[in-house]
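Q: Got a minute? One more chain.
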Amino acid sequence: MFDAVILAGGGKDEPLTRQEGVANKAFIDLYGRPMLTHILDALSGAASIGKVAVVGPEKELAGLLEKGARFVPVAEEGGMLENVAAGLKPVEQQRPALVLTADIPLISAATIEGFLKLCAPFDGDFYYPILSRESCLERFPQMKRTYVRLREGHFTGGNMALLRPDWFVRSRHRLDLFVAFRKRPLRLFSILPASFVFKFLFKRLTVGDLESYLSEMLQAKASAVPCDLVEIGTDVDKISDLEVVRQVLQAKIAPPGN
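A: Always. Here it is, folded:
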């Protein structure tokens, strides 16, 4: 049994939220319900998930609780890592917790169980899903993603991770540095070993290399988890993403023959 933390904080003014008339994309309406509730449904149907904490705006979370949603509300505290830290406080500290974002409404209980199964035997500190370009294009060819080229192929990351809360607390300062540089590749390369940069530039970097370098940098036993659970990486960041998600959901709920 694993506890889960949904990150639904960090609302911002952007074309997507302006179009939908919300301050936070987690509360975009998807067929009569906020996007966040689709993630809650998936977790509630997963047999391996116990307690669920949601980090987000207090007023909106209170409104969902009043309508019958079941989760532990946690007030958002700022950036991503601050919200992860806040969300991990009410969960069991001695076992891995599933951390996921509130903008992947196509996931299901089967998706969650599938990812957890791939993480067994759960003896590491950090598990992160990576999705092949081929599987993403086959499932959702109209969605644009950023891929990293490794020796084994082109991959993109998912929007959930399995991690140990006690490791997160110990390694917080290292994670702060990594997150600060994640969108500044040249600065990020400056803190990576020369061998990593060399392999990346000459397209010799492997999944195993990533695991080794991340484990060393984060002082963790880190594992990349290759999978074809594309819904994990189908996040709603842009208006075009939302259009695709609505089309998929519409196909699921449309009456037979329509």
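A: The mean pLDDT is 89.
Q: Perfect, thanks.
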